[in-house]
Amino acid sequence: MTMNSAVAEPRGTTREPVLSLKGVSKGFGAVRALTDINLDIYPGEVVAIVGDNGAGKSTLVKILAGVHPQDSGTISFDGVEVSIQTPTASRALGIATVFQDLALCDNLDVVSNLFLGREITRGPSLDEEEMEQRAWSLLRQLSAKIPSVRIAVASLSGGQRQTVAIARSLIGEPSVVILDEPTAALGVAQTAEVLNLVERLRERGLGVLLISHNMADVQAVADRVVVLRLGRNNGDFHVADVSYEEIISAITGATDNVVTRRASAHASAAPASPPESASAPSAAAHAAVAPSEGRLTEPLPDNSTGIDEEID
Ligand SMILES: Nc1ncnc2c1ncn2[C@@H]1O[C@H](COP(=O)(O)OP(=O)(O)OP(=O)(O)O)[C@@H](O)[C@H]1O
């Protein structure tokens, strides 16, 4: 067993993390949901957060989304320590969170959903033409397969709805996008579409935090995978270097606090975690990452159109 809290750093870059958590803890009464979490996300990097049920993934997302304040520890954005007390504060910083429920208005069309709360006006009226043009421009940049921007989102597929929700998160021009289980309940083709979209977000230089139970998704799209176990860091790996089995071991606790693909400053700074007793892999962890789901059998379609416009 390796007792080491080193954190894998992104390759080929000396840039500073856009988002950095140091020693973040959160409790709910007697429940320690998160203890001393360290996490860095760099621009243009997809970081997957994985962990068994109750590992603390949602709590981490909610802290970053301004739903819960952390009890202790610091969060820095673009190198500056910040306080994220409300969802508005989170969005204002440049963190966009797409929760699992997507929060779309089913009866409204794609344009209306994209610009909800950020409508473009001309004089006293909505500038529908401008919003429609921008909607198409954005969806093209994302290589999104949406048949029309004037249909109600209720009539879209699960993958298309996820696409609209992610596209909407970009309207505020964030630097970090958090996706909470974006492919849960999607079929193979729709999952591939959403993973393609994640690639587009990375190409735009965004830091992407991907919460997922699905190892195939993680291995297909993430640069790094960060494992939470019982509310603590229990692994930080370059996806290219780590095996499926190693990730599962870190999730289940068969290998505790295995965090070594590249040493970093965190190695000396992070307090040693008390060793957890190695437990048998839980049924939930196995269900979440059953071998049959472990690899994506189809390559991701190359939807790149070469369009490289910026959101304006
Ligand atoms: N609002 C809350 N009040 C009390 N306890 C909570 C609250 N939210 C989370 N917890 C507890 O904190 C711990 C971490 O929960 P969290 O939902 O963050 O885990 P998770 O990794 O997202 O799990 P899952 O994959 O099942 O969604 C759990 O023990 C959970 O019961």
UniProtKB/TrEMBL annotation:
Keywords: ATP-binding, Nucleotide-binding
Matching CDD domains: ABC_Carb_Monos_I
Organism: Subtercola frigoramans
Name assigned to this protein: D-xylose transport system ATP-binding protein
Lineage, uppermost ranks: Bacteria, Bacillati, Actinomycetota, Actinomycetes, Micrococcales
Keyword Lipid metabolism carried by entry: no
Start and end residues of each stretch annotated as Disordered: 265-312
Superkingdom classification of source: Bacteria
Ranges of biased composition (kind: Low complexity): 265-293
